[in-house]
Structure formats: structure tokens, C-alpha cells
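Page 42, continued from yesterday. The earlier attempt failed because a stray header line got pasted into the input along with the sequence. Redoing it now with the clean sequence only.
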Amino acid sequence: MQAIDILNNFKENKFKGFQVSKRKGFLSSTWLIYQKDNFIYFFDIAEKIEFSDNYKYTKDEFLQEFKNSHFEIDCEIV
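This time it went through. C-alpha cells are written below.
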């Protein structure tokens, strides 16, 4: 799934976030993606979850930054 699909999942469901596997080429990593106050927050699974500007993206920024990434939703965060 693409970055736009992640955003569409936020629209279609009332989840606060997702744990995802992100793939770029052969590399795979686990991340947390949250939607809060109309922004997208993107955290490495090992990082402290801190809703600060360091992790904040507008929807357009998120789409641009991760346009070449492929995601798989591992679980929903309610």
C-alpha cells in the first residue's frame, strides 16, 4: 500500500494510528503512524512517542516524503 492508502485508512476508520512495516527496496522497518489534530506523526518503533514538530507532517508533506515507500499495516491503534 502507498502513503495515500494510509491516509485513506484514517478517513475510513476511526483509529488513532497504525503500526506499519515500511519497505523501500529490500529494506524493511517498523514504524508508528498517528493522526492527531489534522497532522500525521511518524515514529520509529523504538523511539519515544512525542507529538512534537520533529515528527509532524502535513498530509501533503507526508505524501511527498513517503511517495516511494510501500507500507503494510501490522495492527491498528485505537
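Notes: Residues 3-77 form one domain.
Reminder to self: strip header lines before submitting.
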